[in-house]
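Annex B, item 7. Sequence and structure tokens for protein A, then protein B.
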Amino acid sequence: MNPIFSALQTSVFEVMSRLARETGAVNLGQGFPDDPGPLDVRQKAADAVVNGWNQYPPMMGIPELRQAAATHFKHWQGLDLDADSEVMVTSGATEAIAGALMALITPGDEVVLFEPMYDAYLPLVRRAGGIPKFVTLTPPAFGLTEEALARAFSPKTKVVLFNNPLNPTATIFSEADLDLLADFCIRHDAVAICDEVWEHVVFDGHRHKPMLARPGMRERTVKISSAGKIFSLTGWKVGMVMAAPKLMRVLSKAHQYVTFTTPPNLQAAVAYGLGKDDSYFEGMRADFQRSRDRFADGLKGLGFSVLPSVGTYFLNVDIAPLGESDDVAFCQRLVTENGVAAIPVSAFYAEGAVKNVVRFCFAKHDATLDAALERLAAWKKAA
């Protein structure tokens, strides 16, 4: 068996979700909403199954979705994209990331990773033959520094894998951070694979700033988006990739020999959804922000130290003021003894792990969040 995958431990998400099922805990670990997603988008998918095309769609994606993506990102992010040569549809953002790594690096190339990071990044980089170089981010800001980037970049740097907004920290990189990273990419002739799946799930008046729009980055950026995150339909696995034609030509070859296509009915529904009125996207953000505030206020009322959350479905708590120094042990006790499942953020680090931060998912119904707060209150009272 390939040692890169055979040696991997069971995902922390699966471990915590299994414990939640076994104990009847409130599951605020894995990141998916309680809400089923917008009804009109789901109905569009159902209609497309019954009345639409169900054979192989074009490898690059149906024309309607590619054009809808180009139009959508022009409207929201000011990007000028050619739907025919610069947009591709994949079976989820993770497929897009895997394909981009396989297409752009050769064994021995160095890949800059920012930790904490989505757990798929590191095994995918290693399987593609890349040598990971880590930039370790620390709370509460989780920002970039020139010194940290200088340690990670070298003449062997080929690719930067960059997640913004950042899961699991729930933070957004500043424009100064983006310009600093862009400067390093340009100086080292590196391509930025930008995982921007949370681009619409931002709060407090923030608007996403894509790396593709930074000066000097148009020809060296792969932008990856997710319909699953945009529409809270995480099971659909419809990704969108945007890149200059020179990059797209090789990205499409990787996609061709991995999944080739994505269900056409889902593509048709996503094309429809991307054209929805601005009020849908603004309302979606407002609803999530309200849930964030409800849960954050509840946690603060119980004496928890809550870190800022300006994007994603997540809220982080610093457990050091509670006298806790091991987030894994804390989360195991919390789910087995107190009935609330959370995720230890140290699981997202490969080196220099921060061990005092725990992540909760707030994309839940009020009753679910309130039940979790009640159990946390009982734990605090007994502590």
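Protein B:
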Amino acid sequence: MKSTVSTARQKAASAREGDFVTTATLRVWADVLCPWRWMGHRRLAQAIAESGVPARIEHRSFLLGPDGPGPGRRRIAETAAVEWGMSPAEWGSRRDRIEQAGRADGLAIRMDTAWALDSRPAHRVLKLAAARGLDETAAWEAMFAAHLRDNLDLADWGVLAEVETGLERDEVLALGDNEEYVAEVLADHEEGQARGISSVPTVVHGDRLLAGARSVGELAEFVRAAAKAVA
């Protein structure tokens, strides 16, 4: 379940500095439902590039709604009112803050019309992509965009099969007919809870955790510290 973010510039910088010769492995717990995690996904890639050190990401599943959404099929704006008890003004303020932050990272996030859904099928698809040796970082990017930008219904296996994860359509549809990777997704979630993770994104190296929406600078410093720890 590994994805390497590496560029010629990084390698050259590492060779020049000579301090960071070992690849640091960063474990990232995330849910595809989380807009802050999409921003974190982009920022972490940028932070690794700017840090000048080699780093590898292990993607882990974390379920913000482990029991799934409430009854009925709702968009997020309706869920905010019916299930979260938010007034239109409260939700509007939160929505605008998220969407503005996304634009600063070059992301077109549409919160009102995103679906409230069970993210476990999407996580299972991502596990399958990892097992096939596909680019996990690209697969996660595609899944974030499908949910948060395109507002696709990722609870529908036919829709999931069209997300550009690198998998064949028939592979994804077959996954919907069995229980493959259900246990792996749950194991990731439970491991995250055991580590004290309660929000995403959370980046972990050894016993160090960096949680929440962090800047590129903060993430780059975390990456450098991780590389020093394993040098």
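Comment on protein B: The beta strands are 2-5, 24-30, 55-61, 202-205, 208-211.
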